[in-house]
Each structure stands twice: as C-alpha cells, then as structure tokens.
Specification:
It is a single chain. Helices cover 35% and strands 25% of the residues. The chain has 440 residues and is an alpha/beta fold. It has three domains: 5-137 and 305-338, Rossmann fold (3-Layer(aba) Sandwich), CATH 3.40.50.720; 141-301, Dihydrodipicolinate Reductase, domain 2, CATH 3.30.360.10; 354-434, ACT domain (Alpha-Beta Plaits, 2-Layer Sandwich). The protein is built from 14 helices and 17 strands. Helix 1 (14-25) crosses helix 12 and helix 7 (162-174) packs across helix 8 (178-187). Strands 7, 8, 9, 10, 11, 12, 13, 14, 15, 16 and 17 form an eleven-stranded mixed β-sheet that branches. It has a six-stranded parallel β-sheet with strand order 3-2-1-4-5-6, sandwiched between helices. A hairpin with a 2-residue loop joins strand 9 and strand 10 (260-271). The longest helix is centred in the first third of the chain and has 17 residues, at 107-123. The protein has helices spanning 14-25, 27-34, 65-71, 88-97, 107-123, 140-147, 162-174, 178-187, 196-199, 202-216, 235-243, 305-321, 366-376, 409-420, and strands at residues 5-10, 38-44, 60-62, 76-79, 101-104, 128-129, 153-159, 226-227, 246-257, 260-271, 283-290, 294-301, 351-361, 381-387, 397-404, 407-408, 430-434. NADP nicotinamide-adenine-dinucleotide phosphate binds next to helix 1.
Length: 440
C-alpha cells in the first residue's frame, strides 16, 4: 500500500472540526477507497485551548497557519479559515509554492485570487481543489470541471445561499415579514449577526463568479456581477407571485448572451411547478444547461459542518488517489493562462419576462396609462391585474401587477421610468425578473 497522505488543516471551526471527526470515524473506509491512509498530522487555529470535540494533542500545533503551510511535513494543506486576505491567502500561496496540494472551502479567497492561485498550482505541479466553496456538499465544481468536459454550457444558475432561501421560504409558507424571518434565521444560527453579506447577495456572487469561470472558461470577474439582494422583497410580492403561479428565489445566474456573459444575482420569479421552485429552506440547488447533456439539476445541503466536510473529504480523497507524475486536471477547468478575458453581458440587454408591481392612485385612466406605457416600449403582457383596495386601506390607492412576455431590461426600465413621470405612482415600483428553467 502507498504511504499515508499527510495533511495539515488550518482552521478548526465549524468545517475544520467536522472534517477531523469525519476523517477519524471513516479512516478504514477512506484507506480502502483511496488505497492509502489519510493522516492528519498538523493543525492551526487561533485559540489552542478551545474544546473542539476532538483531541488536538495528537497533532502538531501551529499558532501561525502560514508557518504550518511553509514548514510542516505534509502533502496537503487544507485551508478552512475563510476570508480573502491573510492568513488564508498567504498560507495557500506558501503551500502551493512548495508544491503542496491545497484543498480550500473559501469562496471569498477564490473569487479574489482564484486565477493567480490556480496558476501557482499549475507552475508547481500541485492540485488546488475547492469543491466546498460553492453550494457546500453539492459536487458542482467536479461536474463542471470534469464530468461535463466537451459540453458547451449555455447557462448555470442556482440557489446558493441557504440564509436567503430560508427567509424567502418562511415568508411564503408562514406569511411572515422579511424582518421576522431574518430574526428567526439568526436565532436558529442560519444567519450571521451581521447578515448583510448573505441578504445583499454578495455570498451568492462570490460563488457565481467561480461557476462562471468553470462554465465559460473566462477569468474570474467577481466585481462584474449585477447584484440585488432580497431586502426589498415584501410579503406582497411573494403573495402576488404565488397567485400568478411563481415563487421568488434569490438566484445567481450566469448565461452566455450575444453581448457577453451575463452574471447576475437577484430575486427571481421561477414557475411554481419547476423543480428549483420546490427547493426550500437552507437547501441549495445548482442547474447547468449544456448542449450535449441538456439540463442537470443538483439539489442538496449547501452549508453546515458535515455537508461541507464531506466535500472537503472528497477533494482530499481525489488527491490521495491521484498518481504522482500524472497530468493534473487544471483547477479552473483549463490552464489559468488560457482563461479568456471576461466580457460582461450588460444587464440592460438582458432578455426575459418581468413581474412589475405598481402602487398607484385609485383614479380613472391609470390602468390604461400603464398599459400604454408598456405598449410604447414594445412590451407584450402575459397578464395585467388590478388588485382591489383592501377594506381597511383608507388611502385611495390600488395595486397593478403586470407579467410581461420576454422583453429587454432596457425596455422595462424605460417603461417604468415613463410611468414614474405620470404622477399617479405611490412609492417605488417593484420589478422582479422571471427565470424559466429550460424544460418549463
Ligand atoms: P469558522 O467556524 O469561523 O472557523 C474558522 C476557523 O479558522 C476557526 O477555527 C478559527 O480559529 C480559524 N482562524 C481564523 N483566523 C485564523 C488565523 N488568523 N489563524 C489561524 N486560524 C484562524 O468558519 P467555518 O464556518 O468553519 O468556515 C471555514 C471556511 O469554510 C470558510 O472559508 C467558509 O466560507 C467555508 N464554508 C463554510 C461553510 C459552513 O457551512 N460553515 C460552508 C461552505 C464553505 P479559532 O477556532 O481558534 O477561532
């Protein structure tokens, strides 16, 4: 049997601690599957005295993660600290520069430095694996990087943030406000004390930027993503969507268009009977549409210690099974130097259906005016509904809900801009893009 694979783990929090436990409880199974043992030999975290549910005295302890990466007698450096700065960045660079293989779950690091790190791995004959960085336990990186080789991907999209999906699901199922659901998510540990990164869509954007690169062979462009979070989604939107046969999900979508590659993260209406609409709570889902295979949809746990540790364990096992001297699979699907520059598909030219909810003064001619502004911008309507006033609503107002057939973002913005100048609009209009799965 080959020598044991020696690993060092920096970061012993939710994922790191779960990883050590699963590696310990599955050591025999892993040895049989990989043809060699996997031994944790060195670890690093900030607080050495913390009880983590395993005996850390079995391992060589490093206070400094970069020192571990630079000097420990290991084959694989596993980075589970998080963040796009140091020590994650410096330690991963130090490990790759020594020719050590690296496994990380750190989407923030990859979104910022992924191309550089992939290039460094290639120069040094090292493997850089990061399955856990996108959609936790769902093997979407491997699917894009390896299983779909030879396919041309047209669109990849998904629910990649459990916090947002939990909030939107609770709003719809329980008829609760956004604020109430966010508080509940925080109480249950599904949302951070500062939830901005999740609910404003940044977390999904990081993950999407990595998928875009793997799907389309372009450089990572995490700052070039159209971004809208879920903070403006009201219960009224969710109920109106449900009435019209849709559910609202925060989707990350990357799509090839005539003008470039659209990367967008925004609340999206998906048909109620589509599979992705059924993905509730903290569960994640990623769909990949490609020419040879067609549509692939993967659903599973996107976060949590064990689910994430499972993906990290798979990445480590792949390294254990790799043959020294064999040609390595490029980390980003193709050699870093061959990644094409990213050409942004502008949101203005996005084509699709739209949901528009307007609160307007309750007077004659408004309904006709709204319909006219749409027609003037060549927007054809699937439906236009006038909602009756609620009995307890003293204000003279009504709601008009429109669903458009496929049109462009530019047309919708022009039409809504024209409506805004009419003087009957109350508050800001709500505009939500509709995304249809290929089969729907
Ligand atoms: P976490 O619970 O906050 O743990 C972070 C760990 O890193 C802790 O053990 C911490 O040490 C250690 N650490 C932080 N700064 C350090 C430093 N300067 N030097 C050495 N160690 C340091 O984080 P996590 O949830 O396990 O996440 C780890 C990574 O996995 C992140 O990149 C995250 O994005 C990714 N990820 C997490 C999940 C999930 O469900 N949690 C899912 C997918 C991906 P102390 O324990 O001593 O404080």
């Amino acid at each position: 049997m080959a020598d044991a694979l020696r690993i060092g783990i920096a970061g012993l929090g939710t994922v790191g601690a779960a990883l050590i436990k699963v590696l310990q409880t599955r050591s025999e199974l892993l040895t049989v599957s990989c043809g060699r043992a996997i031994d944790v030999v060195a670890v690093s975290a900030r607080d050495r005295s913390r009880d983590r549910g395993f005996d850390a005295s079995d391992f060589q302890w490093f206070d400094d993660a970069t020192e571990l990466a630079r000097t420990a007698d290991i084959d694989v450096f596993v980075e589970l600290m998080g963040g796009n700065g140091d020590p994650a960045y410096s330690s991963v660079k130090a490990a790759l520069s020594r020719g050590l293989h690296v496994v990380t779950a750190n989407k923030a690091l990859l979104a910022r430095h992924g191309v550089e790190l992939a290039g460094l791995a290639e120069q040094n004959g090292a493997i850089l694996n990061f399955e856990a960085a996108v959609a936790g336990g769902i093997p979407v990186i491997k699917a894009l990087r390896e299983s779909l080789t030879g396919n041309t991907v047209n669109r990849v999209y998904g629910i990649m943030n459990g916090t947002c999906n939990y909030i939107l699901t609770r709003m719809e199922k329980e008829g609760l406000t956004f604020e109430a659901c966010l508080k509940e998510a925080q109480r249950l540990g599904y949302a951070e004390a500062d939830p901005a990164f999740d609910i404003e869509g940044n977390d999904t954007a990081h993950k999407l930027s990595i998928l875009t690169t793997l799907a389309f062979g372009t450089q990572i462009a995490a700052d070039d993503i159209y971004l809208e979070g879920i903070t403006n989604i009201s219960l009224d939107d969710i109920l109106a969507a449900a009435d019209l046969g849709y559910r609202i999900k925060l989707l990350g979508v990357a799509q090839k268009t005539a003008s470039g590659i659209e990367q967008r993260v925004h609340p999206t209406m998906v048909p109620q009977d589509s599979v992705i609409a059924q993905v509730d709570g903290v569960t994640n889902a990623v769909a990949i549409e490609s020419d040879v295979l067609g549509e692939l949809l993967m659903v599973g746990p996107g976060a949590g210690g064990n689910a994430t540790a499972s993906a990290v364990m798979g990445d480590i096992a792949d390294i254990a099974k790799s043959h020294p001297g064999a040609q390595l699979v490029p980390s980003l699907g193709r050699p870093a130097k061959q990644l094409a520059p990213y050409k942004r598909g502008e949101i203005q030219s996005h084509e699709g259906g739209y949901f528009i909810r307007l609160t307007v003064e309750d007077r004659t001619g408004v309904f006709a005016s709204v319909a006219t502004r749409m027609a003037e911008n060549s927007i054809s309507l699937e439906s236009i509904v006038q909602r009756p006033k609620k009995h307890d609503d003293k204000a003279e107002r009504q709601t008009i809900i429109l669903v458009t057939h496929a049109t462009t973002e530019q047309s919708v913005r022009r039409a809504v801009g024209a409506i805004k100048t009419e003087g009957y609009l109350i508050g800001e209009p709500q505009v939500i893009r509709i995304e249809r799965p290929k089969a729907a």
